[in-house]
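Take a look at the protein record below and flag anything odd:
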Amino acid sequence: MEFSEIVCRLREVLNNLVRQVDSIYSADTKNNKLCASFTTIHMPSVFSSFADGLTVFLIMDEIIAQNGHIKHYASLFMRMLNAVKMEPVKFCMAAENVDCLERVVNQCDGVLEIGLFQRFVQDLMLNESTQKLRSNKRFLEENFFCLREGLLDILSRLDSLKEVPSERRRIVGYMALFILQSWLTVDPPEKKGARVIVEVLRRLPVVHADNNIRFVLLDLLLAQLPPSMTSWSPLKEVMKESAAIKNHYLLKMDEVLSRDSQTIRASLTSWIAAFHSSMSPMMQLSEAQATLEIRTKQIIQGLLLANRLQHILRSTIDLHVLFEIPIKKEKLKSLCHVSVLLKAVENVFYRKHFEISQSLPHIINLVQSHIESLLQPVKAQLEQDLSRRSQPNNMTFLSSLTRSGKDADTKAIDSLAAVDLALKMLQGGGSDTRQVVFHLAVDVINGTSGHLETDHSRVRKLISKLALIAEYDTVVGAVTNCSFLYWRREMMSTWFSMVYAQEDRALWLQYLVNAFCDGLRLLKVSKVNVSSLDSYEMEIEKSLANEIIEPLCRDIETDLRLHVHSAHLKGSVNVNPTKTGLRDLSWYLQLKPLRISSKYIYIKSRVENYLNAAFYNHAAMAPHDWKTYSEMRHLAEQKYGLELDDIHLPGQKLEQGVDLLEIMHNIHIFVASHTYNINTQGNKGNPNGYPYERAETVKKDIRKVALGDGGLTSLEHFRHLISEMGNALGLVRMVRSGGLNYSSSTCGFVYDMKSRVSFEDASRELNLQEAVIEAGKILDKSLDNQYMSLEKTNYFKILTNVFSQELQSNENAHLREFFLLVPALTINAAEAMLEGKDKILKRSRDAVNAIFTDDGFVLGVAYILKVLGQETQFDSLHWFTSATQHFKKKIFHLEGDTEAGQTRGGLSGLNLWNQKNLTVSNEETQNLKTDVRQLQKYLAELELIQFGFVCARTFLY
């Protein structure tokens, strides 16, 4: 029904247009006095619109011809309709609706037999109101004149960056006018017009009208022209050379792809830079007109570049498909690049859409003002000639228009009215209706004021510019649309694989995805079902996975394996980048998520999931290789920035570490050399606390005491002793955690250990055999042991209870003030940690003593405070809060001095131009910054000690 309504409405509009034009150019001037002054006027806009309507009929015919299932399904539908007609009530339809539907189907069936275009031409020739077209020579002459001039105008810009969008489709319309002309007259075209037709057939044998709709112009003419025209000599010559013309056109397009794509790329690069500059919001308002002129130029240049790129891409691919000639690999790369450039233009327009939208109304007004400035002199001259017309013996331009003075006045008034109408149409926005009326008025002006001082070519250029700007959104969508790639989906995998072969082209991916996603836009317009949309989305996603994601995952995994194995298995794996090449695969991981209509594909996340699964599976199959996969995980993080999960499998084996029995045999060495590490947590304290200066004083006073073995102070010896105690406690905690882990695993299938059900008693109550009762007894004993391991074995509590009674006795009264030494000990520990971490970065003999953690100290301090019962007393000092505030205050003052130093240095540089003073100021500033960084490191170490202390106290409860 919708198709029928469109066809009927278009036929009515075109018939009405033909009757009106026929009336204007009718030779019967007696009955057509109102149109007498327009009989000599050329109206190219009218015939161009007529050609557009005929093009729609030809496109519909081509769509029907390409879909061979339409006729078959139409016949099936007709059979079903006959069944419905027999029992309309059964199908919930009224009889009159069935009859109406049957008439529509019959009409459509008739159209399918001969075609919409031929049906319209036949109706036009048989219709009584339009039969006189054959005898209206003025109409036929004007029709051929407009199509000839229109083709010449298009040919002058063809295959250049000045080619306007939709001009190639208009060639099909002019050919439709030529076909109509051939049916209406028996005379062959005049030589001048014939040369134009032949030139079009030679230069442009194939025209791509829309998406996958193409017209081979020679085949179109042979199929639609009357039989008498097949003997037309120019047409016969073209038929003889048809194969050579097509091959030459294909070779020409290949040359254009190689030659012009590089030129267009250079033009596009400069255009993007100029476009961003012209669309900058920082443009001065005082230069508003100049800014709008630049923006107009840049917008139109971008549209023309995109139109050229789209033509090269679509024509080259389709011509190879049409002539069944494979595309070479280098040509495929060039086509891939062209598609990327085309979507890059679309992206530029999209990113600057806000600025363009703000400028468009002003740009339209500016172009209209330019046209108005050219039409105002015409209006003034017409008004002047009309005023002189009343004066006798005064020959003016108007008197030369016709021999009759009355006719001259009529033409003058009509011309002036056309100018006024055109100026009025320029006062508003650029709507479709205003543009149609304006074009008609300009046609009248050009036809009646040819001798006036008017730059007609400049007016035509401004009109073309106005049409592009007024339809900006539509034109941008049309020239950057790649929906024709929906019928060339085999290119998808090829292009993706080409992009993956060169990692520096990783940024092309999103543009390529956008190009193929334009097919979804076409499917949505076609109102297909959701499953078809999902199927096409899955096809794009699958192609990405097969050509980009899966190879990337494999290559990254292989690269990680080669790096790790080359370090551990020297000689067995050789990695030589100079021979094998070096690929930076991180380009693909740095990409933003790729958008495919309703979903996003994040390549980095896909790779992370793949490696997580691979490392886990391999480590599960070969647990002894856990360290290898752990190293690969860390290498992936450092080299590619991948955030991988821990393997979550037991990794500590006897061949990988130290046996627990060996630790117990050498416990004194372990506690002295081991540096325990616990998870850090935060803690907040009171704002008031133990003064930092007092702790510093205690540390200095102890330092005055004589040095002991190894050049260590008493405070450092004390700290080492506490650390050894903490390391021993850390070993206890590790043993405890291991026992709990084992007990929990073995009790995984126990129903509820807290219920304390006796299997021995239950077996006796059920009068089971003695062997079963004995097994129940053993099971009860095992469960009791497990319960003791899980709930009753608290080693820290045992150690605390054993030593607290002894250490809190009067014999150890000297330890009652231990909590006052903790601030000085923490300062000493922080200094030692900073020194140990600095040694990590140094390559010296002393680097073997480098450490990065020593949580044994905080665990030892927490244990001693617990044993001595001094936890509350130490908390009352609020030591960590006080120390933190002390360092933050010092950092704040130093940062203030740094900013002041920088400002002072800048002023001295500006005012005194004294290089020496400026250098001193810079050195002072750098020293202050160094002090700030050192204090920040110190503060960070104190905070880590605080967090470790909080965790250690938690373990002891």
Observations:
- The longest strand covers residues 206-210.
- The beta strands are 206-210, 213-216, 594-596, 599-601.
